[in-house]
Structures
1.
Amino acid sequence: MNIKQYYLACLSHASYMITDDASKTAVIVDPQRDIDEYLRDAEQGGYAIRHVFLTHFHADFVAGHIELREKTGATIHLGTRAGAEFAHEAMGDGDSVEFGQTRLTVLETPGHTPEGISILVYNLAKSSDAPEAVLTGDTLFIGDVGRPDLLASIGVTADELANMLYESITEKLVKLPDATLVYPAHGAGSLCGKALSNETVSTIGEQKKFNYALQPMSREEFKKIVTAEQPEAPDYFVHDAILNRKERTSLEESMKKSLVALSLERVLELAKEGAQLLDVRDAIDYEGGHLSGTLNIALSGKYATWVGTMLSHDRPIVVIAEDAGAEEEAVMRLGRIGFDNVAGYLADGMNAVNHHESLLRSTERVTVAALAELLDGKRPGEPVPHVVDIRSEAEHARGHIAGSVNIPLPRLEERLAELPAGPVVVHCEGGYRSAIAASVLSRAGRNGVMDMVGGFKAWAASKLPVESDAVSTA
């Protein structure tokens, strides 16, 4: 028996293949929607993928259970509370699937979601009593537990889920043997919790020592601590949680429909009809020259998260890419989060725009040294810009440029009227989000927009003055 972890950094998502050599059976747990890796590895090992488990209906991505069913005929397994549209085997506490020297036994562990399960993995060649591992989905992370506040809009309160989570942790998971390996469905960077570790595997014993949410405490203390200071969840989370319950189009079918080369004229027509123009190039290329009205979310960063935050899943999207093949990656990664609303991509990328100067825009990039001089009035004749910090409120509170206005990126478009007149410099922590922000302002018709290169990290590293809610340093 072997457990292989697949880690998708863009979504901080871990999925798993459990293989059994005696029966040549493979099981996939919490698959991503693009399933080629699983198919390739199973074929190379001579395994047949016969089962797919979802620990719950994920909110931050569309899972690949439908795709695996279509390609392999695998049975889909869900918790008893799932109630999905598609055919599946509902499994409750103690229900098992056994093959060769491997047994998978379900623990119902609601809390992050009502239908959440964990999967005990037994290597029967070693022990039929003590599990070797537990795949905890989003109930238990390394260093954290799943947030219970994501489903209020579809009828389940945070308080109800927090009560379930407390019981799942205290009555089931912490009672497993200390040596049991813990494999969660997400790691650091996921918005499904607030304090996830960079580690992607641990043990029950280690989590009982070091996970804040597994320390002895009352139910009310637990509920208070796990609901406090959770990050803002993107709007697309509810869309994906609902989509994962449904019978739907496969990613392969969706991409066939979406990978359509469009002329510049057609792209401009679609934009007039309300299509969203998405430029996926790196900021330095985008800001050097881009098509008017586009939003820049680069493939090189947390692309899926920010696409899901800044774009709508029910309006057409047109992709603008530079390198050959980048448009296919951009569309596939949109599909990972259920954005199947791509109308096509601009044929020949920015080369199609280069001879249409009236359609071209650029964004000024400013170094931290140059900005410091502007703010100190050391550049006579040049206006002093307003600094807009588009990081989260918590990031801004820990340290910021004196006098900066804090408008978190997800709220920027709805709060444009709050921006002062005159030139504006936007910044984030490292430069990725500020490029998105600059494109939002440019798309809204704002002039005099500058993007601070390197973000707040570069400002602080240059020993320039920093303020926090409590302290000012120079």
Note: The mean pLDDT is 94.
2.
Amino acid sequence: MAKKMTQEEWRTFVSHSTRTGKLSTVREDGSPHIAPIWFVLDGDSFVFNTGKDTVKGRNLARDGRVALCVDDDRPPFSYVVLQGSAEISEYADGPEEILTWATRIGARYMGAERAEAFGRRNAVPGELLVRVPIAKVIAQAGVAD
């Protein structure tokens, strides 16, 4: 039987290793758009980068509502869904802030030795820093137990 994760459990789960998230945004016609992202937790928010002109970047600028699903697709299967409304910063708003977060994200997914290069690649004009304060959490462990 599935077990609801505690806050500590879901925070550990979504931060584990290089688990990617599947981000759902709202298209102009109201339909969902889903794309994989790299992200990090920061307090009660999750943070990621995306291009301003990507589908998700355009969707977020128009409608900030998002859901992020992080899962373990191995038995007994577990998942966490985080929901909230995005807060967007552009390069012009603070290139150093974007560099800081892009580097942290790079460290998680690419390793410390490649973090700075990843950060510099993503802290450029046209890139967005997206912070999503977490408004709702659904977290289940051992779904197939």
Note: Residues 3-141 form a domain with the Pnp Oxidase; Chain A fold (CATH 2.30.110.10).
